[in-house]
């Protein structure tokens, strides 16, 4: 007991050296927080009957320290914005609260848009800036909003403000983010820091020696998206209800989720992972489950591929075909979302993501941010391993072959960080060294291209 108190006090003192950062203040005013034990909670549940949705929810990984920080942030945000918008208060444009603004790229799918939001929020808490989202105009249709983060509410006041980009797609301030001081004198001259990216850009910040201790004292390194999204990107009850009904009606004792992405595989050229490979992977996972009722949930990005996969599964399961339920939720994947040309509707995409996240094992497409987002939302704190990833191997310059395959299990569950390889290739040696202090740096380079 005494030892624990001593540890807490020491870390508070260490942190107190660095002024002006939101997490400092939070930790100082919440000193009773115990060390995080999310990772040591090794309660592997022995599934002997199908878990209904509410039981699965009980197993959800929880992040009480992050949740407390989030609640605290909401209060601060509300207070500050109310003051800012109070007509009787004269706004001093030289003294506006500093902000992080994530510019949502609506032509991208959710797999790219949501990770950028989560990381923007992480930036805002470590830099003690307010968090806003610009351009995600239908956010309220899908997600609960605990505070008004619509940039439109306050943007006018910032007409004359200085701004700069932290991330503008592949022009990223990696060196600054990986090892710099995001509140240094120069950065402080910018009221607005923009984040405009389709990448999961939390990873370099987690390596930054100025912030890594605080961040990992609040959120486990391998659950950053999971923790933040449970609050900031909480799915609306009317959508969650659909997911709940679906799971209660369809899930068995062991549930495999398969996500196949074929249409937009821009990151790996014209790569087509043969559907047979996904089918074989599911078959392998079913070894030893003969006495269980298995459900295979299938999410694909077009109807034809889904039909091929379902047929392949039915035909290859042999005697297990009878006890295996093969299901899907989205009906017409040939509908194209006019925004960005993604398949299906956005609400169906959110339902698919959510159902996938409640499966026991995932078989996903290499390089698909949607696939990795589904596993990053994984409901349970254990296992620590991530999804099974199927990828084809090149026979020659442009030929991918069916019988040369990599099937691997990802090291853990976090979204895709496409630029991790560019970061490792193009940055200066010191930045690379620091980036590699993130214990999961290898994961970021294995999961995408
Ligand atoms: C799971 O439950 C079954 C039946 O109750 C039991 O035989 C088996 O040993 C359990 N396995 C583990 C790993 O607890
Ligand atoms: C493991 O998790 C189950 C379901 O959440 C719970 O009922 C049980 O008490 C837990 N066991 C331990 C040892 O924590
Ligand atoms: C606006 O500010 C004034 C002066 O500080 C205060 O009296 C008033 O209650 C505030 N109004 C609102 C709506 O917060
Ligand atoms: C869920 O409710 C929101 C309003 O809170 C609405 O905009 C949205 O269309 C609803 N979605 C569905 C699938 O019913
Ligand atoms: C913050 O403001 C939102 C409205 O933007 C409101 O719904 C919410 O209850 C407020 N929360 C707190 C903790 O003040
Ligand atoms: C800020 O700019 C917008 C359009 O660019 C304008 O409509 C608005 O009145 C300006 N606001 C202020 C406070 O100057
Ligand atoms: C970051 O810069 C600010 C000055 O703008 C300074 O007060 C703070 O101590 C610096 N933090 C670190 C970790 O160097
Ligand atoms: C498996 O499913 C079948 C048919 O749906 C059902 O009759 C059987 O009781 C289930 N077995 C278990 C162990 O739940
Ligand atoms: C497998 O089961 C499905 C029904 O669940 C049935 O439609 C299909 O014909 C079966 N296929 C084989 C090869 O047994």
Automatic annotation (TrEMBL):
One of its GO terms (biological process) is protein N-linked glycosylation. It comes from the Eukaryota. The chain crosses the membrane at residues 7-27. GO terms for molecular function: alpha-(1->6)-fucosyltransferase activity. The keyword Glycoprotein does not apply. Keywords: Membrane, Transmembrane, Transmembrane helix. Gene3D superfamilies: 3.40.50.11350. This is 23184_t:CDS:1. It comes from Cetraspora pellucida.
